[in-house]
Amino acid sequence: MSQPSALEEKLDHLQHHFIDSDQQFEASKMGMWVFLVTEILFFGGLFVAYIAYRTWYPELYMLASTELNTFWGAVNTAVLIGSSLTVAMAIRSAQLNQIKGLIINLYITIALACVFMVIKFFEYSHKFEIGILPGSYYSYEGIAHEKANIFFSIYYMMTGLHGVHVLIGIGLMIWLVVKAKKNVFHSGYYTPVEITGLYWHLVDIIWIFLFPLLYLID
Amino acid sequence: MSGHHISSAKFLWGVGTTLFLLTFITVAITWIAIPAPWNVVVAIGIAVVKAIIVSAFFMNLYWDTKFHAMLFVLSIVFFLLFIGITLLDTLYRTDPIPTF
User: Fold this and answer.
1) Closest Cβ opposite residue B78 in set A41, A77, A81
2) Can you tell me the distance from the alpha carbon of A109 to that of A60, in angstroms, rounded to the nearest whole number?
3) Which of A212, B12, B23, B89 has its Cβ near the most Cβ atoms within 10 Å?
4) What is the interface pTM, i.e. ipTM, of the complex?
5) For an interface test with B, which of A48, A54, A79, A98 has the most B Cβ atoms less than 10 Å from its Cβ?
6) Which domain holds residue A135?
7) Residue A80 is part of a domain; what is its CATH number?
8) For each successive 10 residues of chain A (218 residues), what is the average pLDDT?
C-alpha cells in the first residue's frame, strides 16, 4: 500500500464531518441554492416596488425609459451572457482537470464583469451630470412628469443592487483564480468554482429581467 | 442524479448562442410597435425563456437533483404571491398614492 499518500493528497479538501467528497459537494450546492432563494426574494422586493409604481404611473415609465440608452443596455446584456458562458466553461475545465483552462476562463469572466461595470459607470455618470439623481436630489427638467424621480429611484436601487452583486462576483472570481493557482482545484474538488458559478448565473438571470423592464419599455 | 454532469464545450456554446439570439430578438421586437399590454407580455415571455435556459443548462438544474429545482421554483412561487398580495392592496386603493 504505497498508494495512500497520493490518495490522501487528493482528499485534502474533505472535511471530517462528511462521509465522502460527493456528500460534501452536494451539501455545499444545496446550501448555495437556499442562499439563491433568499437572493430572489431580496430582489423580489424591488421588483414588487417596480410593479406597484408602474401600475400607478404607467405613462411615467414610458417617458422616463427614453432616458436610458437601449444600445448600451443590450451590450451589457450580451456581456453578462458571455460571462455566464465563460463561467460554465470554467466549471467544465475544472471537471476535466484542465487548471490552465479554468484560470483563463476565470480571467475572461473577470474582464467581462469589469466591462459591464465600466459601461454602467458611464451610464451613471452621464445621468449624474444632467441631474438625474435618485429621490429628492433629482433636478433634471427633461421629463414632463412631476414624479420622474420615482422611476429613477427604482432604477438606481435595482441596477445599483445588481451592480453590487457583480462587484462581489468579481471579488469571488479573483479568489478562485488565487486558489486555482495554488493548485487547490481538481476534478475531485471544484466546489467553490461550482457554487460561485451558480451565484454568477443568478446575477445574469436578474439582469435578463432588468434589461427589458427598464430599457425596453419606450 | 449526482451533480457532476459535464457539458460538452459545443453544447455550452450552443446555449450561449441561443441566449445571444434571444437578446437580439427582445431588442428587435421593440422596433415593431406591439400594442400596449402585449409588448410587456412578449418582453417578459422572452426573459422567462432565457431564465429557464440559463437555470436548466448553465446552472445544471436539468441534470441535477429535483430538490434544487424545487427550491428555485418555490422561490418564484413565493415571489408571485408577494406580487399578487401587494397588488391586491395597491390596485384597489381609493386614496392611492403616497408621496415621497
Assistant:
1) A41
2) 36
3) A212
4) 0.91
5) A48
6) 21-215
7) 1.20.120.80
8) 50 86 92 97 96 92 91 96 97 95 97 98 94 87 85 95 98 97 93 97 97 90
Number of domains making up chain A = 1
Angle (deg, nearest 10), helices A148-181 and A58-65? 60
Residues of B in contact with A201 (CB under 8 A): 54-55, 58-59
> Which secondary-structure segment (H or E) carries B46?
helix B36-53
pLDDT tens-place string over residues A34-63: 999 999 999 999 999 999 999 999 999 999
Of A29, A87, A212, which has the smallest distance from its Cβ to B43's Cβ?
Answer: A212
Give the DSSP letter of residue A137.
G
Which residue, among B47, B45, B33, B100, has the nearest Cα to A53 in the 3D structure?
B100
Nearest neighbour of A88 by CB, restricted to B58, B87, B96: B58
Across chain B, mean pLDDT equals: 90
- Verify whether the Cβ–Cβ distance A204 to B54 is below 8 Å: yes
